[in-house]
TrEMBL record, chain B:
Single annotated GO MF: 3-oxoacyl-[acyl-carrier-protein] synthase activity
Native source organism of the sequence: Pyxidicoccus fallax
GO cellular component term of the entry, any: plasma membrane
This protein's name: Nodulation protein E
UniProt xrefs under Pfam families: ketoacyl-synt (PF00109), Ketoacyl-synt_C (PF02801)
Its biological purpose: Proposed to synthesize NOD factor fatty acyl chain. Involved in the synthesis of a highly unsaturated fatty acid moiety, which forms part of a lipo-oligosaccharide that is responsible for host specificity.
BP terms from Gene Ontology: fatty acid biosynthetic process
Keyword Acetylation recorded: no
SMART domains linked: PKS_KS
Segments forming domain Ketosynthase family 3 (KS3): 2-408
Primary localization class, coarse: membrane
Homology family: Belongs to the thiolase-like superfamily. Beta-ketoacyl-ACP synthases family.
Amino acid sequence: MHHENEAANMRLVITGMGAVSPYGAGVPALLGALAEGRSAIRPIEDFDASGCGCTHGARVPQASLATLTGSNNLRRAPRGTQYTMLATEEALQMAGHGPSTWNPERVGVFLGTYRANAEVSQEIWHRIITSEPRFVQPLLFQETVTNAVASALSIRWGWRGTNYAISAGNACGFQVLTLAAQALRSGRADAIIAGTFDLVTAATHRDMDDIGVLSDSNVSRPFDARRDGFIMGEGASVVVLETLASARARGATPLAELAGLGVAHDGHGFGIHHPEGRGLASAMGQALRAAAVSPEAVDYIAAASNSTQSLDRAEVAALRTVLGAAAGTVPLSSLKGLTGEAESASDMFNLLACIGAVRGGGLPVQAGTEQPEFELNLVRQSQASRPVRAALAHSYSFGGNAGAALVRAL
Amino acid sequence: MSNRVVVTGIGVLTPIGNNLAEFSEGLRAGRDGIAPVTHFDASKHRCQSAGQLKNIDFSAHFSPEELPYLSRGTRMIRVAAAQGLAASGLDLAAEDRSRVGVVLGTNLGGMPAAKEGYAALHHPYRRGRAGPKEPWRALVLDSFISAMSDQVASQYGLAGLSLVMSTACSAGLHALGVAMDAIRSGQAEVMLAGGVDPLSEMPQAGFGVLRSLASDKLRPFSKDRDGTLLGESASLWVLESEAHATRRGARILAELAGYGGSTDAYHMTRPDETGRGPARAMQAALDSAGMKPEQIGYIKAHGTGTPANDVIETRAIKHVFGERTQVPVSSIKAMVGHSLGSSGATEAAAAVVALNEGFLPPTLHLDTPDPECDLDYVPHRSRPAKLEAVLANAFGFGGNNAAMVFRRWEG
């Protein structure tokens, strides 16, 4: 019994999840669209992208959130705060959270992002450049710090545990979960609200367009021989993470087990992937070993590939290194064919897709890929009938940061 | 197996010294590193002085081909990293670098390099219009906060946990804490950690309009204090498990004995006046070190010089150390300025200096005692002291608090 408790203290479960995605608010909207293979990529309308090589994006439909943000006094908050807070509400509701669920001193908020509240920084630079520093708006400046969103969450719900805001290139979701796992397993926290958010703005779209990483053909086609760059996506996603022991103790019903995590860096060169996907291979290996799951037992992979030459090739190399022959047979899809590259938000979309998969939902369909360059078992239509015992979610930043999470049904 | 975490090398760039020895001399001498800002045009800013790096020639550290492609933040952290690694004597080539990681605290990272990109938003845009050789285009990928850790990982081939902590002004101390956790948990035997923040117009403007910047001097804990002054700095610490450090015969500078964090959950920019949030972080750091307040010989305060911080920090110290505590407390910000996300780690280097060199760094410009700030703040001049353990604080926007205990190493 003692050993069983000890093991339950080390096992991590997800008891709630929430998302705001290019499909609007809610995990069902996201997972439903992915299983149908419905694309969120559209011509950009809310800023002028006409001079760009790439004129498409996958934006959060802001108008669809009006009721939600209005009823929560969120209308004037930066979009990053709006989306993350709505995702947190959804996750908490699913986790059965009430006013006395946790001791607030033992709840932490850990968030990851690549660009933070980029539109706010953009607005402040605009003031500095076009007028004078003394006309910078103080209420906006406080939103430029990376931890502004995490702080807003802690203030709203009164959580007083350690609060982290991190960044690890444009894919830091599993770095967030790794720190959360550490805090829970060491007994410093009873629950961690862990999430990511990233946004598209005029400046970020133009920057990415300028350095030539976006698709000139305006198509996101991961793994396709004709892939020519990514389409930018955005959103936020949050999970409630607890040890199995504390979830059981409060009578919560876990959605899935976070059975293994891995993070690594290519350590290869700034802004380029290791050609063999060394970082991702290391992260996948760590996640599988931690979960004691063999490559053959993985029934679905939510891939990181985003329709760029180097990331997709490096990910396939990593898959072959770690999975061997199974690399060609395990059902796999990259959500970015549908949602675009939502940067750190994509990491958590991948995690949610894996949670959905082990809970019997339809697998995300691989869209955009007509001429696959690699021998992979891409999910071509929803395969709800096939049971998924274990699923692997990937992340891979162009800075060389990689992550993997093994999700298992309980 | 020992899971004690030790520091074996520290590289620093600060306004009062461009390596640990110079920094130590500056602290002992009570050097004021604040000066008029020359790094950018500050003539339109409400506050025009800051702690700027001096006598640093980056062209001596990087090739002419590489230099234009590196943001100021990257230049700073790479110079500090080279220093810290050299000081530690660590031979990375002999390490399993798949398990060596890097965690850095930063508020801005490479972001100041994005200014020209933002300026270009105000012109009609067509891809490639200004040509691919424009330096700011080359800097796009380096103009993010996470570029700081990516650059160090890439430079040294580090393949372990790599990230930046960005919790405003507590980030640097959290970075040391996360790296310490990675070693304590056995995830890594060696970690590089620290902080970096370059001066930038954005915080100079933002803290200016928040009326957080001093009208004249930064006067921590003084009755006439009226704000902080910004600064820039970088530091890179080589952290190792005790077993790893002793196995290779490294010189150990200090032990990272305990770390704690907390959140006020109170207000975005105003700290909770009771001081309970920072007190919980200090208590957690002591608990994690297995130590009692009376074992701490010195507190390296956050001490920003704003009216609110200094009185609240004083209250917080009293919550943990008692109303009548005699523990000496000082803020080095009057010497180096407030380097935001870097400050937690870089100022903690002063705590290690104090342990090893046997003196308390002074609080400059504390000219008028404040009845609400009635601790021993080591005013004006450094003071000899034999220390066994010290505590460092760092608090940030959003009520984000961190504290760390450093213990003298008897080897």
